[in-house]
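Next comes one such specimen:
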Amino acid sequence: MATVAIAPGKWKYVQIELRDGGGATKRVVRSFAGRKFHADMFEKAMEELQPRGLRGVVIGGGRIEYDTTAKSVSVYGYSKTFGRAAGCNEHSAALIRQALPECKVTWSDKGY
């Protein structure tokens, strides 16, 4: 299972803490094209992850702008639905850097 799955373009995203049946946890970042709300992002992610026996809790979210041509990713803002989560954008950016080392990844807590 990929730690990061983000859609090209500018979309909302969620950071999810997953837990398996044995209690092991993992943080993942998910963003899907065409989904309008943070709750939609979470719902879509869990449709894919629950059949693997994983439960998830949203840590936070914001927006991701992923430009595949420029090889850049910007993580910013917050989720009105799930609230501000200290460190969420910074941690999400770090996960994205690991998953997409060819991209320049920046983050900010500013914006909506």
Q: What stands out?
A: Residues 38 and 81 are 7 Å apart (CA to CA).
